[in-house]
């Protein structure tokens, strides 16, 4: 590591932090500052409330150890993990002293608004730190801690505390990234899955203007905010509350519970689970009269806003070629599921459609979509892969298509589309973990194996196809961060053109070869659109 400083101390606007020089898996060095506080600990009276800016501190704060996750229940074994005091961010810098400021990439984790952590233990920066950038990941509240919501302004819990955590962190980054050689006027926000959905909505908040300058949305679209009726009352009863349906009393009860108890989100009945209810607490429309409300409109109205400031910032968006493969076990290990779906095909539809159509219209639409994807074949477990493909369109490809129809007429900056289609037998780590080694296809989350060093990652040979895909992914992401244009030499002389308002959608297809092709999902998305319009659902 030569003459580089092993434990540099940086002075931020709130106090001094000590980081550490680290070596990446391929021998590159970078600086990490783990667990810098950006807000007061959201404890006691601040539980469920909007975050408060961090106080300044004296002395040097040690930022050499990864902070714990925000408190949550492990989705695999139910163990309670993390802590309630979790509003910390992590800064990784290729250089601390640079003649030219480096672009900052700010990452929002996925995890259904309920699970996940932002530290380098989970999303190691090693691959991105081969490039001249700084990377910042944000810890924000999850589950009930981040997304409990009451309509009464006087209760001061209008919802979306987790989203407000991100907003406060972005304000901190804007003010402080310069101290880590970052450029406060060149910040790229990128998120994955629910983190992408949060990034998409932050693009439309006036409070975010100038806090970031371009966006990458990876495998996550938020077209509708689904509110579970009487959720907070149901949740409190589930945790032992015996009082009336009175929000002040419910909030008092939940505020007094030990934090670990609030991680128990198993509120669904078996019938509700059959209706594909996965999310409990998530983003919500807040009462616009709450003084700290930030998300007060339906997303579709936000996306149609011709004056939205984000119309003038560059955007890259896309998804993987078989997103719903993540639900492989759900669709292939439950023969009884198909009996339910034959009776209730509408359970394959999004909550948005179910909220906007009566059951007859839902079933008509579902049957058209089933015919589109299965032809004359019967809905049963033998057709599970076709049903999963239908599901991929429902939660990913058609929302991307609808969103592009909203953005492109108003956009004054380029919009780039990609499809990740690299199917490695041994390095698509999420698919291997969730579906088993014998299943092939490119699932939701598989692209992150090629952007971050994950817990199951291992060192690849530099001449392997997998390593070439790491080079490709990190190259276009950092090229976009530097230049607002993802084209770079690692795209094998392919020119990635932005989308146009008229004509077919072309996408960068990232596979064994990188190519620029007609977006593979467009043809079916056009039919989905037609069926949505017939059902009276807005497609822009």
Q: TL;DR of this structure?
A:
This protein is α/β, with parallel strands linked by helices and 540 residues long. The protein has 15 helices and 16 strands. It has helices at residues 143-147, 161-176, 194-202, 231-238, 247-256, 270-274, 299-303, 328-332, 335-343, 351-356, 359-374, 384-407, 429-435, 465-483, 522-534; strands at residues 9-11, 16-18, 20-23, 29-37, 60-62, 72-73, 80-81, 88-93, 102-108, 134-138, 182-192, 214-218, 315-320, 415-420, 506-510, 514-518.
Folded structure, characterized:
This protein is an alpha/beta fold and 540 residues long. The protein has two domains: 9-313, Alpha/Beta hydrolase fold, catalytic domain (Rossmann fold, 3-Layer(aba) Sandwich), CATH 3.40.50; 324-534, Rossmann fold (3-Layer(aba) Sandwich). It contains 15 helices and 16 strands. The chain has an eleven-stranded mixed sheet with strand order 3-4-8-10-9-11-12-13-14-15-16, sandwiched between helices. Strand 6 (72-73) and strand 7 form a beta hairpin. Helix 11 (359-374) crosses helix 12, helix 11 (359-374) runs antiparallel to helix 15 and helix 12 packs across helix 15 (522-534).
Topology of this structure?
Blueprint: E1 9-11, E2 16-18, E3 20-23, E4 29-37, E5 60-62, E6 72-73, E7 80-81, E8 88-93, E9 102-108, E10 134-138, H1 143-147, H2 161-176, E11 182-192, H3 194-202, E12 214-218, H4 231-238, H5 247-256, H6 270-274, H7 299-303, E13 315-320, H8 328-332, H9 335-343, H10 351-356, H11 359-374, H12 384-407, E14 415-420, H13 429-435, H14 465-483, E15 506-510, E16 514-518, H15 522-534
């Amino acid at each position: 590591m030569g003459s580089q400083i092993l434990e540099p101390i940086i002075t931020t606007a709130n106090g001094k932090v000590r980081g550490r020089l680290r070596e990446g898996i391929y021998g590159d060095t970078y600086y990490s500052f783990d667990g810098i506080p950006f807000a007061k600990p959201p404890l006691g009276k601040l539980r469920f409330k909007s975050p408060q800016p961090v106080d300044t501190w004296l002395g040097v704060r040690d930022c050499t150890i990864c902070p714990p996750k925000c408190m949550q229940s492990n989705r695999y074994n139910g163990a309670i993990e993390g802590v309630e005091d979790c509003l910390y961010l992590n800064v990784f810098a290729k250089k601390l002293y640079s003649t030219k400021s480096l672009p900052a990439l700010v990452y929002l984790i996925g995890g259904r608004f309920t699970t996940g952590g932002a530290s380098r233990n989970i999303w190691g920066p090693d691959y991105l730190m081969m490039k001249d950038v700084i990377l910042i990941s944000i810890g924000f509240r999850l589950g009930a801690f981040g997304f409990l919501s009451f309509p009464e302004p006087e209760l001061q819990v209008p919802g979306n505390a987790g989203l407000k955590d991100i907003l406060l962190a972005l304000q901190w980054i804007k003010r402080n990234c310069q101290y880590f050689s970052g450029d406060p006027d060149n910040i790229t926000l990128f998120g994955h899955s629910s983190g992408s959905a949060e990034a998409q909505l932050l693009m439309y908040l006036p409070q975010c203007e100038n806090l970031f300058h371009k966006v990458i949305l990876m495998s996550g679209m938020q077209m509708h905010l689904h509110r579970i009726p009487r959720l907070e009352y149901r949740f409190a009863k589930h945790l032992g509350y015996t009082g009336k349906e009175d929000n002040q009393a419910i909030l008092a009860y939940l505020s007094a519970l030990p934090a670990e108890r609030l991680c128990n989100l198993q509120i669904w009945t078996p019938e509700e689970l059959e209706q594909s209810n996965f999310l409990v607490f998530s983003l919500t429309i807040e009462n616009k009269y709450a003084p700290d409300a930030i998300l007060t409109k339906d997303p579709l109205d936000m996306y149609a806003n011709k004056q939205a400031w984000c119309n003038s910032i560059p955007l890259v968006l896309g998804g993987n070629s078989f997103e719903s493969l993540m639900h492989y076990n759900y669709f292939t290990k439950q023969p009884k599921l198909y009996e339910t779906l034959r009776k209730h095909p509408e359970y394959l539809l999004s909550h948005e459609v179910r909220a906007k159509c009566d059951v007859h219209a839902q079933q008509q639409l579902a049957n058209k979509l089933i015919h589109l994807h299965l032809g004359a074949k019967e809905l049963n477990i033998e057709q599970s892969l076709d049903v999963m493909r239908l599901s991929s369109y429902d939660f990913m490809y058609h929302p991307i298509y609808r969103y592009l129809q909203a953005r492109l007429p108003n956009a004054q900056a380029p919009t780039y589309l990609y499809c990740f289609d690299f199917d490695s037998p041994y390095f698509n780590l999420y698919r291997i973990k969730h579906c088993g080694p014998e299943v092939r296809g490119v699932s939701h989350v598989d692209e992150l194996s090629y952007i971050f060093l994950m817990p199951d990652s291992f060192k690849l040979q530099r001449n392997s196809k997998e390593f070439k895909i790491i080079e490709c992914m990190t190259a276009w992401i950092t090229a976009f961060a530097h230049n607002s244009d993802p084209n770079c030499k690692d795209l094998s002389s392919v020119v990635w053109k932005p989308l146009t308002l008229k004509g077919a959608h072309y996408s960068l297809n990232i596979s064994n070869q990188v190519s620029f092709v007609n977006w593979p999902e467009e043809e079916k998305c056009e039919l989905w659109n037609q069926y949505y319009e017939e059902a009276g659902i807005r497609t822009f």
